[in-house]
Amino acid sequence: MKHILGVYSQLPAGSSKEEFETLVSKQLKPLLTMVYNISDIKLLFRLGISEYDYLETFYPEINMLINELCIRGQMEILTSSYYDVILSLIPSHERATQIEKTTTYIRKHFSRKPRGLWFYNQVFNPTAIPVVGLCGLDYVVISTYNQITNITEANKPFYTDELGKDVLVIPSDDRFSKLTSELYLGGLSLDRYLSECAKAAKETTGPISTIMLNMDQLMATDGSEKVYKTIYENLEGECTLPSIFLQENEIGKTHYLPNGLYGRDYSIDRSTSINQLIYDNPMLSRNYGVVNMLRDVIRESKKTIDGRKNIDKLLMMASCSSLYFPNECKTPAILRYSNRFACEIESTLANITGISFPEETDVDFDRVKEFLIVNKSGISYLNRKGAVLSRHTIPSALFDLAFHSGEGMFVDSFIPTGAVATNKNETRLVSQNYEVTPLDKKNSDFFAKAPTVSLGKISVSLTKRFKFRQSNMIIEVEIENMSDIRLKGFTYVNTINLGLPVRCACTSPEGEIPDGGSATTQSVTLSDRHCPFTVQFVMGEDVVISRNDFEMKTHTWLGDKSFYEYTQLRIQKQLSLGPYEACRLTIGFKTEKRKEKHNDTTEQSAP
Hints:
2 domains; single chain; alpha+beta; Beta-galactosidase, Chain A, domain 5; 14-stranded antiparallel β-sheet; 9-stranded mixed β-sheet; 7-stranded beta/alpha barrel; 14 helices
């Protein structure tokens, strides 16, 4: 009986320094030291490129140790897509490039060419099978426990076929994955976990048993590094590597491995595919749509772009898989890190003469196209639904100001005057389709008309005009009483959700507006020394502006934490309109890059 003992980590780019440091101190150092000191141990190993880069910067000695273990024949490294892109989410012609780039990185740094492939978070699609052989790889390692069907497809190595191409699949033992997941989620004590792992190691049957342990799930539990020695001491047979096993054994079994979400690395809840997981989340589907739109622009403008390699690299990084997973990957820092590269592509393409962006695009797959406005002050996506800015990229800061879980910028609603807005008493128009009409050929002016609004027995007409200028933007809102009786007792509210890099001070000429506070003023500025830009709003008259900061509560690899997510401004104008009378509210919007030096904001979404 032979065994393959393997470990993997999948911390995405943008993870906190605390997470990287915990992985190093609690997992990598104890494990690699044990393997180095016991020459009989052979280890199958997988890290992501962002993790290798972190080690190269802060712990080059660990990378040297990995290289030494590879030279000694004690370690075999699995390759994967670059920056953990999900292969099924990118065009087929890009998949081989992704894998080969990672393979080249590993070969140059660790003296050995990888022979096997790992799928990030074990998202498998049979369309990737032909690419495995094309990249000169011999096998795939993956759990065959399918979360969708709740069954284990196979527990012994087999060949799976797709379009006349086959690949060897080495399935990992789900018993160990299940135990590790239960430990991570608090369902097992450490002592019980170690005991169950020892028992499972002794009971393993078959020609080969592959054990793959998730270091991300283990690293927060003190003492969990003992599991490696516990398993090794209880393995009744030789510890080997996939390439050695394949040289000594022939695999005759075949089995079709269907499309699925395998293993126990994360919970898919009720989703039945990675695509559904994306489409069910508006923020994720929007990012996916933006990246695909940029990919199309690049392809159509291929001859125009100089420095194409840099664009291709940015496209790889903008496709990071960390954007598409729930739970631990949903910290604002990780999401903004990945989204930053899409912003950089947008800004780079906008400065190239001859590049043609689509005037309209459906980036969020809701069958409602959005207008795309590109100028020096920003790149804006004007959504017909709600007539809001669903995305606004600041080129100088490579930042999307609307990237958050809010509903966009400049959302219209009405509330009874003096009332606290609730779902019951606030009339919100963000889900309504506006009639949006370009007023010029340059797509710099737009007129938007909302469906008729009923406030009690009174019908109200609301229109908005967006004027996109080189240095700023002007939004003119007009509200007209369409009835023959006076409209009173209602307040118009324009809500602006700002996904700032950090929590900023909000100041007006009358003083600072704290979180939860409000002021009657004509202008506000949001700024912080850690933020690379300032945001300013100027109104044509005195209005009440309230400010609220929102946090995201999420489960990280190191426990439940809260992170600053976005700031919401609500501009309020009390209405008192006679029959068929109209009023107007003008909002000027401007962003400006800070001239003084500012600190890096990569991890400033930390709690």
